[in-house]
Every structure is written in C-alpha cells, then in structure tokens.
Design brief:
By secondary structure, the chain is an all-alpha fold. The protein has a domain of 78 residues. 70% of the residues lie in helices and 3% in strands. It has eleven helices and two strands; from the N terminus they run H-H-H-H-H-H-H-E-E-H-H-H-H. The N terminus is likely disordered.
Length: 312
C-alpha cells in the first residue's frame, strides 16, 4: 500500500542504495585520512588546510541531513525539501504543492504552480498600492517557483517505490559536482568562468565537474534503471550531463542573487560553505530537470495508489 510514506523498513532494500551509502562513508573516511595526512606533513599552506578541514566538517554535518530523510521515507523527504516564505500566498502555495506531492496527486501538483502565480499576481491589488507592485509580485513568484516548486519535485519522487537510490544519487552527485569543481579548479587553475558572478569558479573546474559527475551519474543510473527504456548509454550520459549542468547553473543562479543583494553567503551556519541554502542551491534546478527527464521515460510511482489522502 503506502508503505513508503513513512518508515525506514525498506530503506536499504535496493543494493544501489546500500552501495551509495557505503561509498559515501568511505569517501568521508578517505577525505579525513588525506586531509589529516596533508596536515601532519604540512604539505599545503595553513590557509588551505583550514579551508579543507572546514569543508570536510561541514560535509560531515550536511551528509546526514541529506541522506537520513531520504532513507526514512517519503514524508520525511518532502518535509526536508520544503521551504517557507513570509508572504501568506507563497506559504500557502508551498504547503499545497508539498501536500499534492505527499498525496500523490499529480494533476493538483501540476496545476498549483500556474494557479498560485495567478493568485500572487492579484493578491496585493486590493491594497491599492501600485508602487512597487512589479517588485513585490515578481519576488513572490520567483521565490515560490524556485524554492517551493523546484524542491517539491524532489519530494514527489518519493511516490515511486524505488525512489531512494535515485534521490540519494542526486544528492551525492550535486555534492560531488561541487567538490570536483573546487578541486579541479584549484589544481588546474586557468581562466575564471564568470568572474563577476562567482569569482572563485574556473573553466577548468566547471569542465572537471561536468566530466566527473556525468560519468558517476551514468554508471550508477545504469544499475538503478536496469532493463528500462532509460537504460541506454546515450540517455544515461545525457542524464549525467543534465545533473551536472543544472547543478552548476543553480549554483551560479544563487551567486547572481547574492551579488545583486551585495552579500557573500546566504548565512553562516556551515563554516567554509556559508548558509544551508548555499549548499542545496544546485538542487533547485536539478530536481525539476531530472523529474521531468526521468518521468518522460519511466515515470514516477505509476504502479502506486494515487490520492492516498484525499481519495475515496
């Protein structure tokens, strides 16, 4: 029935899930040994050692926050990716779109974005304050569509019986994408990618992340979608390219927002990373892109009950 709504009984049913979790733990352990070795040997500058330790420490906090909700069940997954807004209409829209995902009601889920945008367009008109209307409305729509609808696609994936390995792959892939971009950029250097938008990013880092992430996603997705229409080399590679490109675009998009606002980070909760949103920005575009790409070929939860809360 709706076993996947909550509970962790089936968390490790898929061998891909077990492999991804084990590989993540192994990668953290290797990083700990490598950074520890570099520190003991004083093979790098003190500033770089400090940055590496801060990043590793933050990932050790982030990874459980990313992985545990995925393993725990659909309810926890949807709760983990929900964002909230101070504006009533945006908040209501976020609650409804995530409720539609939890209810496995695709028609309502698909209808809510345009309907909420229409409501946002007229919500402030009765206040008779035309000054600043475009700014208020545009920011509300932008916030709802990006931080609400974008991440809600990740939650909707939880309606599929085998969602865990795919969602874990996406979370780990965007994390690896960031690490590869940083590492490759530091090692190879070269011209900046978009210096005014994100001064630390290089062309070599972007290419390294694209190649590495594409390879990882294509290989692991083969085991996730074995025997399906999507299990073709070209389609798997395109999926990998889509994940890496969307992740980097999401990161650059948030960088553009921060530069426009005149801030460096969205917060200081994670040393070496900034705020939590600074680390999850890649998913804002990856989630809907992968949802519709995978959904086109194999769908999500097509064999599961729909409208499990509101239905008869």
């Amino acid at each position: 029935m709706i076993w996947h709504v909550a509970g962790i009984a089936e968390a490790f049913a898929s061998p891909v899930t077990r492999a991804l979790v084990a590989a993540t733990l192994a990668a953290v352990l290797c990083a700990l040994l490598v950074i520890g070795g570099l520190s003991l040997a004083r093979a790098t500058t003190p500033a770089l050692r400090r940055e590496l330790w801060l990043r590793l420490g933050s990932w050790m906090v982030l990874l459980p926050l990313m992985i545990v909700p995925v393993l725990a069940g659909k309810t926890w997954l949807i709760a983990a990716v929900s964002e909230h807004s101070i504006q009533f209409v945006v908040m209501l829209g976020l609650l409804l779109v995530n409720f539609a995902a939890l209810d496995h009601w695709y028609g309502f889920f698909a209808a809510l974005p345009p309907l909420t945008v229409c409501v946002l367009a007229v919500a402030t008109i009765p206040r008779d304050r035309p000054g600043g209307y475009i700014q208020r409305t545009a920011l509300g729509i932008f916030g709802f569509m990006l931080f609400g609808v974008g991440l809600a696609h990740l939650g909707y994936m939880g309606n599929d019986r085998a969602y865990r390995p795919l969602v874990l792959l996406l979370l780990l892939a965007v994390a690896l994408n960031d690490v590869l971009a940083f590492t490759t950029g530091k090692l190879l250097g070269g011209p900046k990618l978009l210096p005014a938008t994100s001064p630390g990013k290089t062309v070599s880092g972007a290419c390294g992340a694209l190649l590495g992430t594409t390879l990882l996603v294509a290989v692991i997705a083969h085991f996730i979608f074995t025997g399906s229409v999507l299990d073709r080399p070209l389609l798997l590679v395109l999926l990998g390219v889509l994940v890496s490109a969307a992740a980097q675009a999401g990161d650059l998009m948030l960088s553009s927002i921060k530069r426009d606002l005149g801030i460096k980070d969205m917060g200081t909760a994670l040393p070496g990373h900034g705020g939590v949103l600074d680390r999850f920005n890649s998913l804002l575009l990856v989630a809907p892109a992968v949802f519709h790409y995978v959904g086109y070929f194999v769908g999500f939860g097509l064999d599961q009950p729909t409208r499990i809360i509101t239905g008869p």
